[in-house]
């Protein structure tokens, strides 16, 4: 059973690294941020699986904070970096 | 069992190599926005590393501060920087950032490589088994007033560090304020999606912060993690265009800012007068004292971090000469 | 009464009073100046109390929280800490009185809380026996110092502050890595326990290299001094005084403390000491020549700090054979430099305020119209040059004596050259202040408190020359330099 | 866990390289943060050497302290960078005023 959990976690990590490729490639900032968000979601999944595998409930708290803060970062991105994509949009 | 070790090992190897690769790319890519997004991703991977190293408390702090708040801070700073550069007509400079890189000395990478090899050797030369202070911590847990060891170290055994650290936070806010206001951000009205998201998210963040504070006495969590999650709620409100306005300079607000460090210092002084020893919590009251200190610290940390994010001094127009 | 004095927790007052005073200043900006002055006054009194305490009872050790090392953090005070605390108290008093007149309302409310936090950080730094706790105090001190350095705003001050921030953060991080290696190598962060457990090993070497590099950067030892002149030269004068007199010395104090207790006996002493000595000598010559070349008074004083830091490092090669004498000389120099340099920056601030500029060639007729500032500058200059009977003279004399006894003529020559160069750049300024200007410049009144605080600090720097015996005997309480005697 | 500590060394070195090599202040601030993460990784990775399942928690507390210090310093540095850019138009330290 443990092995299956770890296999899953490893698979998700590979997914995460595939997502990294998109962050690196872009081409737009939004692509990168979406991919980074995918990171967050995948990381939450990894945490939950590891929590199950090791029986450490604290990891679920970590996953919870992860999920919440990922949303905050996403909002920060939308509010701060988005206008940059559209030169006609005036930030000030 | 064999496959399990193998799987764990490959997981670690993959995670480690990604960390190093990500760090390299984020520090050397041309586009600063890309660098920041990669930094947020880097923070996420760091948190996974903390989990693998059995440090859930650090993982919580990293997820909240390292990946979350620092990311928001960096994104905001970059946005403001671009506004400044647009106003000053220096936008070109950012795009040509790579051309402005200082000339690469051949010696620097070589010297750093030697340093890295030396440090790596030192790390390997460490004895394979070393208990550190884990036995001392275990022996004294009963007298610490809490049952979670990291909280015991932070608030009791090494509480003096934490006391000073609260002042580090406060001093950085005073520093940010003393530099005067930077370009202020006028938020556009949020769309319905963002608006709804915020309305749902802020109460959840507050709830989670309270939970982390409470759980810190016996499980991973505590004032710093709770404070940063609470600060995230504040950051979200600020991002939506909410502004404290003149409220920042009122006495009650200032009292919240200093409550954490202040109460900590006063407790230290009182205990010295009563027991002749700095920060020596009486065993029977230690739990309550620690909870009181942590609660005020959570509030102060949250407000200070949110104010750092806003980074606008109160009364900036009046005092800025 | 005497019992109360001996038992009173002066150490707790020294650390907590400035921190709490800073909070009060922040909360009630209307009484910030008054609270600040009171806090500094009572903090200085507490140094006196602590001095009495450890003079009678010997070294002071206190286990915070009652845990004791290695689990908890220990506070520790001996003659060396006392000397640094005393220098801090003197400079703090002078600079605070000066600042009360210098900062106008808006800046005053920003200055006082940060300054009191800086004072608390300095006191905490001199009183801790725990290398991780030292890291926290270093960061508190560094961030407060950067905030003060950038207080005035403007391109130069902000550039200086930014450079300073990057240097101080890098220094702290490198120091922290050294602490991490020491903890994992020997299972403790307490200085005394580390001294017992540590043995020569790759861990010790790497930790020493990192800690020394980080602290050399923070102390602005040549060639890592690049950040100091812009930061100290463009901060407000009272802040420059604090940075040059105290903050730089605090990092040197840590380096010295760790060298004496942990590293000195372990890492091969002569090679490292020689390197420190060489860098010190280079700092003296380079800093003095640069000071001589400056056209702005405050930049000149800042480069003079780079040079004077060099003297402190000359003690390393001398101490291998005569530990107590060399270190006493270095600390005496550090003390008198703190007083003299603070006085010098404050006097420069007065000239700056009076004439609206600090171009050296344009300082004419200051003496006639600002005699106290010129006197303060001249007296402080005496101590920097090392003319008798000033404190600087005693410090340099003690060090020269050690060098001559050991036949280290190269050190003697460097010291004499440094003294001559210092005389050159100080007399250059004094010469200009005595010149008759064809027409007097526009001038702005300087409050008496600013004039007198600069002068009194300068007088203290000179008077220090008469106090050699009591100061040296206080310095040796707890035998802080004793360990280096045992090593070959 | 030695592997993690080695990666910590790597992060420290990569950060130091970028700090020295690049002029842009935002990049320097990122570099300092990466260096910090490297040090934290070394601290925590070596804390696993207790020989038991439970790691030594004292470094964990130190790292939490360090993370809070890092975010304070980052906030201060970013504000200073913006003020400097507002004065000079560039988020870089010019080479001219280096001595």
String of helices and strands of chain D:
HHH
Please give the most extensive interface between any two protein chains, plus how many residues each contributes. Answer: B-D, 93 and 79 residues
Low-confidence stretches of chain B: 92-103, 316-321
Q: How many individual helices of chain B?
A: 14
What do you see in this structure?
The complex is a heterotetramer of chains A (92), B (321), C (488) and D (99). By secondary structure, chain A is mostly helical. Chain A has helices at residues 2-25, 29-54, 58-80, 82-85. Chain C is built from 21 helices and two strands. Chain C has helices at 2-7, 10-27, 32-57, 79-102, 105-127, 131-149, 155-186, 191-197, 202-219, 228-234, 237-263, 269-293, 297-319, 323-355, 366-369, 371-385, 391-405, 409-434, 448-463, 468-475, 482-486, and strands at 60-63, 74-77. A two-stranded antiparallel ribbon of chain C has the order 1-2. In chain C, helix 4 packs antiparallel against helix 11 and helix 14 packs antiparallel against helix 17 (391-405). Residues 484-488 of chain C have low confidence and may be disordered. Chain D has three helices and no strands. Chain D has helices at residues 2-21, 25-46, 58-88. Chains in contact: A-B, B-C, B-D, C-D. At the B-D interface, helix 1, helix 2, helix 3, helix 6 and helix 8 of B face helix 1, helix 2 and helix 3 of D.
What's the topology here?
The complex is a heterotetramer of chains A (92), B (321), C (488) and D (99).
Chain A: H1 2-25, H2 29-54, H3 58-80, H4 82-85
Chain B: H1 2-28, H2 32-52, H3 56-88, H4 91-95, H5 97-100, H6 107-125, H7 134-140, H8 149-157, H9 159-178, H10 192-215, H11 223-239, H12 251-275, H13 283-310, H14 316-319
Helix pairs in contact in B: 1-2, 2-3, 3-11, 8-9, 9-12, 9-13, 10-11, 11-13, 12-13
Chain C: H1 2-7, H2 10-27, H3 32-57, E1 60-63, E2 74-77, H4 79-102, H5 105-127, H6 131-149, H7 155-186, H8 191-197, H9 202-219, H10 228-234, H11 237-263, H12 269-293, H13 297-319, H14 323-355, H15 366-369, H16 371-385, H17 391-405, H18 409-434, H19 448-463, H20 468-475, H21 482-486
Antiparallel strand pairs in C: 1-2
Summary, kept brief:
Chain A contains four helices and no strands. Chain A has 92 residues and is an all-alpha fold.
